[in-house]
Model the fold of this input.
Amino acid sequence: MPIKLLHVVGARPNFPKLAPVHRAGVAAGVVQTVVHTGQHYDDALSASFFRDLGIREPEINLEVGSLSHAAQTARIMERFEPVLIEQKPDWVVVYGDVNSTAAAALVAAKLSTRIAHVEAGLRSNDRSMPEEINRLVTDRLANLLLAPSPDAIDNLKDEGEPDDEIAFVGNVMIDTLCYTLEQARTTGFRESLGVGRDAIVVTLHRPSNVDEPARLEAIAGALRTIARERPVVFAVHPRTTARLQAAGISLGDVRVLPPVRYVEMLDLVDGAYAVITDSGGLQEETTALGIPCFTVRENTERPITVTEGTNRLVPNPGDLPAAVREAERPAHPKRPDGWDGHAGERVIASLLARRS
Done:
């Protein structure tokens, strides 16, 4: 009898992680249901992903919407509990580190349903980040910890997780990059913007960067400086747009875009001179593509992108213009172990190996 998986996703970073696991599950004959919590709900942040990544629309949408961390987590739990009771899956599969991940894990644990966490073990060691709390909570509750990198396994073992609950599967985000890269290159999106290979692509959304007006102004000032030297394209998250408008901050010659589809963003990044971001996913994608990446943070939960990839932490926004001037694209980028396009298959194999 095939196993039954209940996948829970809710925000933009989750969808590229779900896609390769879901496709591998289809190939293996696994029974699957996707629950979308509705944490992100506009087309560019949510619905377009399912079309672009070749998976069907979620069977269930909890339509939670945007709320404070506590209210959003509580509402997801309240709406997810009856779904889980009705569905009775063998496994609840959660992804990454968003509120939907921790909320679903809490409900599943209290209903004695096994939890598999895709992207387990990543740590920034910064508990001021809401995502770090979600990672810690989810990993403590999960029955199967699906790690993307050796450092993640080391973190889990240091925290006392037993070896038989840890599996190295590699990076599912890179599966999605491999699956969609040629599609992205045929969108013509970068060309439609008139953007060449000298452009800097920017995304920023984390509270530590956008919630404090002085910090946001310092970043905007650095981007204005860079934009006087080369094109800068900033795909602005709704959260960041609201903070810029509230603080009356100008971006000068920076070209501003609304949130764009995954394949369009990948086309931009693939052809970029460099990327400035605070996104975990972009740190990974730029490493796989060999694009210089400057992460505007004090730390990263993906240190392998620094030690083995093209990522550099730039906590002081004033250092960004000089960092961009010094950027060099490696001739032969190296992908870390497990970044081979088959992580989703290893996730399903790990679940099948634990049927009972």
About this structure: The chain has two domains: 4-170+340-352, 186-325. The mean pLDDT is 93. The longest helix spans residues 69-87. The two ends are 11 Å apart (CA to CA).
